[in-house]
Amino acid sequence: MERIRVVSHAEWASAQAKCMSAAGFPQAKAMPDGSLTSGQVPKEQAEPYALAEYSCGVEYPMDAKYKTDFNESQLKWLYRYYTGELTTCMEKHDVSVGNAPSEQKFIDSDGAWSPYQSVDLPQQDYYDLVTDCPEIPDSIYG
Questions:
Q1: Partners of 3 in beta bridges
Q2: pTM summary value
Q3: Residues forming a β-bridge with 30
Q4: Residue 41 has pLDDT above 80, yes or no
C-alpha cells in the first residue's frame, strides 16, 4: 500500500469512509463533526477491519500541519474566533456559552478552553451546530 494523497482536516473523515467502504466496510461513515464511525464490527471482521483502517490511514493520511500544536499567533486568532464569531454563532442556535478565560490564560493553557466544552445536545442537534459553527475552521492553518 502506498500513499494516494494527503488530505485536509475537513476531508479526512470522508476520505477514510470512502476508502473503508471500498475495502468492504460500508458501515464506516463520515460524521459532520469530522469523526468517523463504523457502528458494530462483527468479531470475525475485527482483524480485517483493523487492517483496512490502517491501510486507509496510510493511503489518505491527514496533513501533518493539522496534528501540530498551535503557535501563539494561532492561539490568539483562535481566542478571538471563540469569543467572537463562534460564540455569536452558537448563541444564534440558542446554545449558551460559558465564560471564557482571559486571553493570556487561554494561551498559557495551549487553548484548553472551548465554547463547546459545556454543550450537551442530542446528537443530530450537535451535528447541525458543528456544521454551522465549526469549532476550529480550516482558515487557522493558513
A1: none
A2: 0.79
A3: 36
A4: yes
